[in-house]
Amino acid sequence: ESVVLGPEIVQETTDKIKMIQEKMRTSQSRQKSYHDMRRKDIEFQEGDHVFLRVISTTGVGR
User: Fold this and answer.
1) Burial 11-48 (b: 16+ CB within 10 A, else e)
2) Confidence grade of residue 2 (pLDDT, cut at 50, 70, 90)
3) How far apart are the first and last CA of the chain?
4) Residues whose CB is less than 8 angstroms from the CB of residue 6 and which lie 6 or more positions away in sequence, other chains included
5) Whether the predicted model's global pTM rises above the 0.85 cut
6) Distances (CA, A) of 12 to 4, 20, 21
7) What's the rounded Cα separation, in Å, for the pair 2 and 8?
8) What is the C-alpha to C-alpha distance for residues 21 and 14, in angstroms, rounded to an integer?
């Protein structure tokens, strides 16, 4: 194995970070597209009965 020292290791690490960030962006974009395709907006009319979920913000768990 070769040992990389000095500015070479910094450049190599920077390149790897950029590659990882680009792959993450691509993956997130793919997941967003998949989600957006299947998402449908819910619209309510006045007088519709809906369930409202209220979560307490006090207590041991918070």
Assistant:
1) eeeeeeeeeeeeeeeeeeeeeeeeeeeeeeeeeeeeee
2) low
3) 51
4) none
5) no
6) 9, 12, 14
7) 12
8) 11
